[in-house]
Amino acid sequence: MIELLESVPPGVIYLVVGLIIGLESVGIPLPGEIMLVSAGVAASQGIVNPIVLGIVAASGAIIGDSIGYAVGKRYGRNLLGWLGRKLPKHFGPKPVRQAERMFDRWGAWAVFGGRFVALLRILAGPLAGILGMQYRKFLIANATGGIAWAGTVTTLAYVFGLVAGQWFHRFSWIALLVTVVIGWLIVRVVRRRAEKADEAEEQEQTDSDAKVP
Fold this sequence. Notes:
Layout: H1 2-6, H2 10-26, H3 32-44, H4 50-86, H5 88-91, H6 93-114, H7 120-130, H8 135-160, H9 163-211
Helix pairs in contact: 2-3, 2-4, 3-8, 4-7, 4-8, 6-7, 6-8, 6-9, 8-9
């Protein structure tokens, strides 16, 4: 990869890195992190400027996530409606409502931290749009996460070389496993609270109907 980058003009490298990271953030499974690590190593050899590379990578991540958010917000409800008809137990109105409550409470951390986690890096933007996360809140988490991720990956790749790519690969999948476990626990807690809230609301409605002469 490095030999290939040596034969490519710096402007093309910046464009390709930004484009791949942006498309990955929209929701397309592309090797954005691998590309950034390779470009970071190239920066350590003077092929590209590491500061410009970090800015391009962060911009691609932020713009891509924002597009993914817009796509999820525009078309996600139709997808959820279709899934709700096919799999009502998992995507019906009640589980979707519970997911919205969970994402409203923890969504900013999911967007920020998801930038460092395999798969979540691809899904965070569209998922935030589908579940109706407020865009201002999303943008703050998206921007800070994108800048932190791009800066960290570029810096470590610049300092430590390709070995940094192995670190990030291992960390991403370990982080994904931890996130899945924590997410499952959160879903269980939120679901129980939502069920209790729904039961209380139904009981209140029943009592109100009973008082009507």
